[in-house]
Design brief:
The complex is a heterodimer of chains A (about 190) and B (about 120). With about 190 residues, chain A is an alpha+beta fold. Chain A is about 55% helix and about 20% strand. Chain B has about 120 residues and is α/β, with parallel strands linked by helices. A 6-stranded mixed sheet of chain B has the order 1-2-3-4-5-6, covered by helices on one side. In chain B, strand 4 (about 55-65), helix 2 and strand 5 (about 90-95) form a beta-alpha-beta unit. The longest helix of chain B has 19 residues, at about 70-85. Classes of the chains: A alpha+beta (about 190), B alpha/beta (about 120). The interface between A and B is medium-sized, with 28 and 23 residues.
Chain lengths: ~190, ~120
């Protein structure tokens, strides 16, 4: 009997949680929230969902294309760097959100990266934030024509492209997670017309 | 010379490389995670095309979107074609995009600034 009532209680909690989450999403004007494993299939689905939802609210095509492009670069950066064994996925999962506040769209990600990678990524982001749009263009072209082709170094191109599309400074933070990993928080914004 | 036709998927563009029809065209969206895997056979095909004695090519880009991994490979393709010109081949690139598509226009400008090979912008 006790188990039975616990079961009911649990269900009630679950349902109010869904309701509260739904209210929170509406209040914060979240367009998309995804938590879990990231892969190329998930990237395709989320990018298409973002495109569809923004189209549905009547956003202009160039803004939709920007958000679509930023979404793809963000998610592919995560799926390249956040590959964990299946049994560890639960505690090491990543998050991706798109929200809207007044005239701005906010694209945010959170994922674990290994500690030895933190310094290089931080330097790269700091450098991007010092560059003007013209300098970003030059940097993009230099990186694109660089050799040899290395899949991992390509993420450099991704972040430069995000900064070019956003035209705003990139926000980021690293929260210590354990001896091996830090949680990397990243946010970029795009102005709606 | 065998033609190379690749149908579009959710994350890769349609590729037509067809000497019989004299049609060379990339169209659609390109956002594979591993762009090299998709584009290296295309670059290899172009090299074989040149080695087979063809003296000219008009390559049409009708792209709607590509990720940075693909932009790197498109750079490689244009770099390869630039090499063909230097070896005396006649190469033209036509870059089709819709009038209001600033991203594809910017991309065409980026590439034009990086190569001397002619990249003709054609607004749809």
């Amino acid at each position: 009997m006790v188990d039975f009532f616990n079961g009911i209680e649990m269900k009630k909690e679950d349902m109010s949680f869904v309701f509260n989450l739904h209210r929170t999403m509406l209040n914060h004007k979240f367009i998309l929230i995804y938590e879990g494993e990231f892969s190329q299939d998930i990237t395709k689905i989320l990018a298409l969902m973002a495109e569809k939802k923004m189209g549905a609210i009547g956003e202009e095509s160039n803004i939709i294309k920007k958000i679509f492009g930023i979404t793809v670069e963000c998610l592919q950066n995560i799926s390249k760097h956040a590959a964990f064994p299946k049994e560890e996925l639960n505690e090491k999962s990543s998050i991706f959100t798109i929200g809207r506040d007044n005239d701005w769209y906010y694209i945010s990600t959170g994922n674990l990266i290994s500690n030895p990678e933190v310094d290089a990524l931080k330097l790269h982001l700091e450098e991007i934030n010092t560059l003007t749009q013209d300098e970003l263009k030059t940097k993009f072209k230099e990186t694109m024509s660089g050799r040899p082709i290395d899949e991992k170094s390509n993420c450099g191109l991704g972040l430069i492209e995000i900064a070019r599309k956003s035209k705003e400074k990139l926000l980021f933070d690293f929260i210590p997670f354990n001896e091996e990993y830090s949680f990397f928080l990243f946010q970029t914004k795009v102005k709606s017309n | 010379m065998d033609k190379l036709i690749i149908e579009a998927t959710d994350d890769t563009p349609k590729i037509i490389l067809d000497p019989e029809k004299n049609l060379y065209e990339f169209s659609g969206r390109s956002m594979p995670e591993d762009a090299a895997e998709f584009y290296l056979p295309i670059i290899q095909w172009l090299k074989t095309y040149k080695e087979s004695g063809f003296k000219s090519i008009i390559l049409d880009f009708r792209m709607e979107y590509f990720n940075t991994a693909s932009s790197k490979m498109i750079w490689d393709i244009l770099h390869t074609l630039q090499g063909f010109i230097d070896d005396g081949m006649k190469v033209n690139v036509r870059w089709f995009y819709y009038k209001d598509d600033l991203e594809m226009e910017d991309a065409a400008n980026d590439y034009s600034e990086m190569f001397s090979l002619p990249i003709e912008k054609i607004i749809l």
